[in-house]
Write a structure and sequence with these properties.
heterodimer; A: 246 residues; alpha/beta; Rossmann fold; B: 269 residues; seven-stranded parallel sheet
Chain lengths: 246, 269
């Protein structure tokens, strides 16, 4: 298996405070990696940094996608290279409809615009598989959406934008049991031999659907321990106390 | 702090005898929707409009000022709702180099309700002023006004809002908000929301906010491949749409979206 995504000794500061202290991670094509860890250990900082959020300052290290150094690219340039972040708290944008947003983002990432009829047909199919009502398309983006609705919309975007590497920042939070199953099944269907997934989560429940190949324990701004799928089960049962440095 | 004015002689000019006058009335117990493109109603100059909903009538009105950039506009609009009547008014100031709009709303009958959404879309060196006085003189009435304003380049906008609740106007609900979005370093805004309440049994609120575009909104759009300039256009268009989407008639809404350059194809086939 060849390397799809690699993080090398990534050190990051937020507003002058060092949060990531040296993250190393390699995702091969077709692999799903999970990151678990206590609150406040830097998991979301990692997710934002990977996507190029300007608030996060890279002090050292590299982010490589398909061998290309993307550490200093703008967020939109990363997205066009098919890196995707499912946000933990997607921001509301009043007055911008979901449909016009999806149309703009698909055009930007795919490099060409779909015919209106093709766009509608594609969206309708994906809406159905995520059990999202069509009326969502005319609502303002994420405005007044429940936590579960936001996460479904993030998943919809992932499916439409077809990234080769996706980072999911607590996509399972805010979902009820049925929504968790629907979202997880869609993510599992998305999995393929040439794509990679990095799932940041606190719970085993999503990993029951999307079986990870590798599980990392995050603490103190870096990866403390790495193991197989059974590591997530052990964390669920025993917590983090036994992990050195957590 | 002294309140700025655009037209120092505005009051005197509004009282000129030869100014343009027009009234629109929804007769008793009727429903009416109308839109007036300012340019079609009156040329550049001084104008008075009266919008009245008689008892039990429901009136929706849209006023759109898109005069040429070398024009100036000075207008006064009286909005009057009688007993159990409602008025929904959308106004947009987009054209003219100098534009002063003065609105006085009067909830004159019990159960009356006046709702207004206004939009100033200013660019270049345009100077817009919006002055509103919401008057409640009888019990059990309601008014709500939100004035949005986008300022680009070296444009300047002024908002002067006043809610007056008279002594016997108990059980009044009155709200005024001014939301400003500044898109340039040299664009400026002055905002003066005020309340004058002579009664204890009321629900009242007013406020003003002025901001630039939110970095987190930029980040979200950029993370979906959208470049910064396009993101700025989308976010600004979204701001304008919060007023335009309020217009119930789709054909009017579409016409205005096209005039303002923010029309997008809908989703349904």
């Amino acid at each position: 298996m060849s390397t799809l995504f690699e993080i090398q000794d990534l050190q990051v500061a937020v507003e002058g405070k060092k949060v990531l202290t040296g993250v190393n991670l390699k995702v091969n094509r077709g692999e799903v990696h999970a990151i678990m860890g206590r609150n406040g250990t830097g998991k979301t900082t990692l997710a934002y940094t990977l996507m190029g959020h300007p608030k996060y300052e890279v002090l050292a290290g590299k982010i490589l996608l398909d061998g290309e150094d993307i550490t200093h690219l703008k967020p939109e340039e990363r997205a066009r290279r098919r890196l995707f972040l499912a946000f933990q708290y997607p921001v509301a944008i009043p007055g911008v409809s979901v449909a016009s947003f999806l149309r703009a983002s698909m055009k930007a990432v795919r490099g060409s615009e779909l015919q209106p009829s093709q766009f509608r047909a594609l969206i309708k199919e994906e809406l159905k598989s995520l059990a999202i009502p069509e009326s969502f398309m005319t609502r303002s983006l994420n405005e007044g959406f429940s936590g579960g609705e936001k996460k479904r919309l993030e998943t919809l975007q992932l499916r439409l934008l077809q990234p080769k590497m996706a980072v999911l920042d607590e996509t399972d939070s805010g979902l009820d049991i049925d929504a968790l199953r629907i979202v997880s099944e869609n993510l599992q269907n998305y999995r393929s031999a040439d794509r990679g997934l990095l799932v940041i989560t606190h719970y085993q429940r999503m990993l029951n659907y999307i079986k990870p190949d590798v599980v990392h324990v995050f603490g103190d701004g870096r990866i403390l321990q790495t193991g197989g799928a059974d590591l997530a089960l052990k964390l669920e049962e025993q917590g983090y106390d036994w992990v050195a440095g957590a | 702090m002294k309140e700025p004015v655009l037209f120092k002689d505005a009051e005197a000019r509004l009282n000129e005898a030869n100014s343009f006058k027009q009234s629109w009335v929804a007769p008793k117990n009727t429903k009416k929707f109308d839109v007036k493109m300012w340019n079609e109603v009156t040329p550049s100059g001084v104008a008075h409009f009266t919008i009245r909903a008689e008892e039990g009538a429901h009136l929706e009105y849209v006023l759109f000022q898109n005069l040429p950039l070398d024009a100036s506009s000075l207008a006064q609009v009286k909005v009057i709702a009688e007993k159990n009547a409602s008025i929904k008014l959308t106004f947009i100031q987009q054209g003219a180099s100098l534009s002063h709009l003065k609105i006085e709303t009067q909830c004159m009958g019990e159960g009356s309700d006046i709702q207004i959404r206004g939009l100033q879309n200013a660019k270049l060196r345009q100077k817009f002023s919006f002055e509103v006085h919401s008057i409640h003189s009888v019990p059990h009435t309601r008014s709500e006004l939100t004035a949005w304003c986008v300022v680009r380049d070296q444009a300047h906008s002024i908002f002067n809002g006043l809610v007056s609740i008279k002594e016997n106007a108990h059980h009044t609900e009155a709200f005024q908000k001014n939301k400003n979005l500044i898109l340039s370093e040299k664009g400026t805004v002055d905002s003066f929301p005020k309340l004058l309440i002579a009664n204890d049994e009321v629900k009242c609120a007013h406020g003003s906010s002025t901001s630039t575009l939110e970095p987190e909104q930029f980040m979200y759009l950029q993370s979906r491949g959208i470049d910064r300039d396009t993101a700025e256009n989308m976010l600004t268009s979204g701001f304008l749409h919060q007023v335009l989407d309020w217009i119930s008639d789709e054909s009017v809404r579409t016409k205005l979206e096209i005039e303002m350059g923010v029309h997008e194809e809908g989703f349904s086939s």
